[in-house]
Structures are given as structure tokens and as C-alpha cells.
Specification:
This protein is α+β, with helices and mostly antiparallel strands and 449 residues long. The protein contains twelve helices and 22 strands. The strands form seven sheets. A five-stranded mixed beta barrel has the order 1-2-3-7-6. The protein has a five-stranded mixed β-barrel with strand order 9-14-15-18-17. The chain is elongated, with a radius of gyration of 25 Å.
């Protein structure tokens, strides 16, 4: 079959054919200088069929429209969250100045540059990129990278860039971090490891502990020492697509390997790590999943964090912290290009969209969990503990709400979950099978409250 090649017709005839296509014509009317895109395709693809060339124009116009609606950010890339499961996207932590941080989603580890070439996002570095709001599921998506520089695993350089360009919070200020309504904020803070525990997951409808090393990646739960009656539970999750190189703690992988080789019991594996790493100071970049009233008199507030990056504070390194208002202890918010040189000549567009913030609303004592806590030699221990299904349902629903960008699931108000709900009722309505079905359907069906 002989095809009609693009070079067989004039540019004017090609333009006319595009305008006669209703959808393409609509794009041409919306995109500034669409005629330049048409002319470029015409000159680049003379041997393509006219139909295929029209489709190329359509795709490029769609991309141009998306770029026009994007914002450009200049930020540090500091780790990522890659929850195990094929349906979960990778979330990258982009840390900008003045607390304007973004968790940017992508289902793989590469992002196109201005020429369409796919580039790998490093665990640590600096980036100038265009990101676009995901109108369907909420949050932000990668669109295009215009400059990228990796820090490798140079802990001193990473720490200096965080301290000088972003600012590191003391742990006791984390619950007061401003947040964008209905999203989980990213935070950067310093704390000291008190205990290391094993984490768990659901298998065959039963909650099963993870070993402390999964696919060569540490999977643990860190309990921090309290600071001014604030402590943190920091979870290093099992990963699906990334290497876990954003955990920069000396000897952690080696020790975790030894732990799993010496015992099949995740609890004993975690105790082995606890004996090595307890007392170490770390910098945490993570996403708040909840802020709850503390379990006892010695802790007023407990912050639950999903870790994007864990960085050990090097011996002899003085890490200054800053307060929320930027006064006492302020380390100075330097421009990112004063912290690291970005090899890019293109002038950065000013990001005009301001993110509305408000403080986290802390739950009242009247609406906290009825679970009682006691302190033993290993740390806080729960009594009158809920069933595994009851404990799992709340974080599952919060994660669903975050990824899908909704405020309600079924007849459940997600905001109300922060204020306390009947766990038995939630576990009955949202069984593991129901939650799994929602995840499987969320790519094609819009979840309505």
C-alpha cells in the first residue's frame, strides 16, 4: 500500500488538514505559536504519512498546553518514597525555600528534559523542573527537567545544602509546620534514635512483620527520643522500584544483612540493629502521615513520618536548626544557586503561585484513642491493643485519600479520621479486599466521596 507522505503536500495543505480536525484545531487555538509547531513537524518528518504527522502535532500541542499550565521550581531533590506495590507511584521530595516543598509523583525513575531525552532523577541533588498539578488525583506530577545536578552520596555536601539552603527544624517544631490544606506536608528535621523496631505488612489478610532487609533495602521503624515532649515514629518502607540509596547511615545495610542472616525473627533482627544504632543523630526528610496526642505524660505529641531520606549526622558536625518564624536559630535561607552551582543558562521563571498554609490542627484529648500505653525497658508498649485489621485501616484510608486527592471515601470523611473514629466500624466497612479494589480501580474511575 502506498502512503501519502508529508513531503508530498505543501505546508499550507498540511495546516489546512490540521484545522479540519476538530480536536487538533481546538489545541491550535489554545497554544501560542502553534504554527511554529506545525512548521517544525513538517520540516522534520517529510517521509512520515500525513496521518502520523498530524498525530505528532497533536501530541506536541498537548505537551505545550501542559507546560503552559505548569510552574517552574528550583529545589533540592532529597530522597523519595516508593511504597511497595505496583499501583503506588514514586514520590520525590523537592525541597524549596521558605517551606514550599513538593512531593512530586512519577511511576518510574526517569523524567524527560527539554529535548525529550529521559534523565534519571538522583536520590540527592538539585533540580530546575516544571511540575504540574494533577487535577484528577491531586498532588503534583513531574513534567520536564531543565537542569539537574547530583550530589552522589556526599553526606557533608548534602547536609550543608540542607542546612544553608533549606533549613533543618528541631523535632519539637515539627507538629507546628505550616501545611497546605488536605495534604500531608514534607518536613526536614533532626532527631536522635531511641529505638529501632520491625515494621509489618498484610499478607493473606494477616499482619506479618517485615524482615529488616527486603530486596537489599533496610525496612525498619525508628522511634526518636523525645524533645520537649515531642517524639516521632519514622518508617522506612519496603520499596518497589528504587534502590533505597536515600538512606545514608553508616553500616546500616551491612548490619541489616547480618541481622537477617543470624535470625528469622524480625523482632530479634530489629533488636540487633537497636543495639548498634540507638543514640545516633539523624536528619530526616519525610512526609507527615499524622500528628496525634502523645501516649503518656512524657510525650505531648507524637508525629508519624514516612521517610524519604535518612542522613546520619557526621561526628563533629554542628547542625544548626531554625524556628518556624525564622528568628531565633535561623540559619539563613540562601538562594539555591548560592548553595550549589546549576549548569543552566536559561533564566528561571518566577513562581507566582503562593501555597496557602495553615497550622496542623492537633486533636483534643476527648477524641484520642482509648489504647493505654505503659513504658518498659524497651520503650512504649500498648495494652488493650486493637486487632491487626483495626490498626491497618486508618493509615490505609489516609494514604488512599492522599494519592487519589479526595476528602471522602464512601461515607467516610477523611478529615474526621484525624479527630478519631470507631476503628471497628472502619475495619468492617473497609476490609483489605475493599481497599485493594479501590486501588485497582483508581487509575480509570474517579473516586467520589
Amino acid at each position: 500500500m502506498t502512503k501519502q507522505q508529508l513531503g508530498d503536500i505543501t505546508l499550507e495543505r498540511f495546516t489546512e488538514a490540521l484545522q479540519n480536525d476538530e480536536k487538533i484545531n481546538e489545541l491550535m487555538e489554545k497554544v501560542k505559536d502553534a504554527h511554529k509547531t506545525v512548521a517544525k513537524v513538517y520540516s522534520e518528518k517529510p517521509t512520515y504519512s500525513v496521518v502520523n504527522a498530524m498525530n505528532i502535532v497533536k501530541t506536541r500541542l498537548k505537551n505545550s498546553l501542559a507546560i503552559a499550565g505548569a510552574i517552574e521550581v528550583e529545589a533540592m531533590v532529597v530522597g523519595n518514597r516508593d511504597k511497595k506495590g505496583a499501583s503506588f507511584p514514586i514520590q520525590y521530595a523537592l525541597l524549596a525555600q521558605e517551606g514550599k516543598h513538593f512531593a512530586v509523583k512519577r511511576f518510574d525513575t526517569k523524567v524527560p528534559d527539554a529535548d525529550g531525552k529521559m534523565v534519571t532523577i538522583p536520590p540527592f541533588g538539585v533540580v530546575r523542573a516544571k511540575i504540574v498539578k494533577n487535577e484528577e488525583f491531586g498532588g503534583w506530577d513531574w513534567l520536564q527537567v531543565s537542569a539537574l545536578k547530583s550530589f552522589g552520596d556526599d553526606v557533608s555536601r548534602i547536609t550543608a545544602a540542607l542546612q544553608e539552603g533549606i533549613g533543618i527544624l528541631p523535632l519539637n517544631k515539627v507538629p507546628d509546620v505550616p501545611r497546605k490544606p488536605k495534604t500531608y506536608p514534607l518536613v526536614v528535621f533532626k532527631c536522635k534514635i531511641k529505638h529501632i523496631r520491625s515494621t509489618s505488612n498484610f499478607q493473606d489478610e494477616e499482619r506479618t512483620p517485615w524482615p529488616v532487609l527486603v530486596d537489599g533495602i533496610p525496612v525498619i521503624w525508628i522511634v526518636s527520643e523525645a524533645e520537649d515532649k515531642v517524639d516521632a515514629n519514622i518508617t522506612m518502607e519496603a520499596r518497589e522500584k528504587t534502590t533505597g540509596a536515600s538512606y545514608l547511615v553508616d553500616d546500616l545495610i551491612e548490619a541489616a544483612t547480618e541481622a537477617v542472616e543470624s535470625s528469622d525473627d524480625p523482632v530479634q533482627q530489629a533488636k540487633y540493629l537497636d543495639g548498634i544504632f540507638s543514640g545516633k543523630e539523624i536528619i530526616v526528610v519525610g512526609q507527615i502521615s499524622s500528628v496525634a496526642e502523645g501516649p503518656s505524660d512524657w510525650v505531648d505529641w507524637r508525629v508519624n513520618i514516612a521517610a524519604f531520606a535518612i542522613i546520619e549526622v557526621q561526628s563533629g558536625l554542628n547542625i544548626e536548626t531554625k524556628t518556624i518564624d525564622g528568628k531565633e536559630g535561623d540559619v539563613g535561607q540562601k538562594r539555591m544557586d548560592q548553595v550549589v552551582e546549576v549548569e543552566e543558562e536559561e533564566t528561571k521563571e518566577k513562581v507566582e503561585e503562593e501555597v496557602e498554609t495553615k497550622p496542623i490542627k492537633k486533636p483534643s484529648k476527648a477524641k484520642t484513642s482509648k489504647v493505654k500505653w505503659v513504658e518498659d525497658e524497651n520503650g512504649p508498649v500498648a495494652t488493650e491493643q486493637p486487632s491487626p485489621a483495626e490498626k491497618e485501616v486508618l493509615p490505609q484510608l489516609k494514604l488512599l485519600a492522599d494519592v487519589l486527592g479526595v476528602t471522602t471515601i464512601g461515607d467516610i470523611d477523611i478529615e474526621a479520621l484525624m479527630k478519631g473514629r470507631n476503628l471497628k466500624e472502619l475495619a468492617t466497612k473497609f476490609t483489605p479486599e475493599v481497599v485493594k479494589a479501590i486501588w485497582e480501580d483508581h487509575k480509570t474511575d474517579k473516586v467520589e466521596g
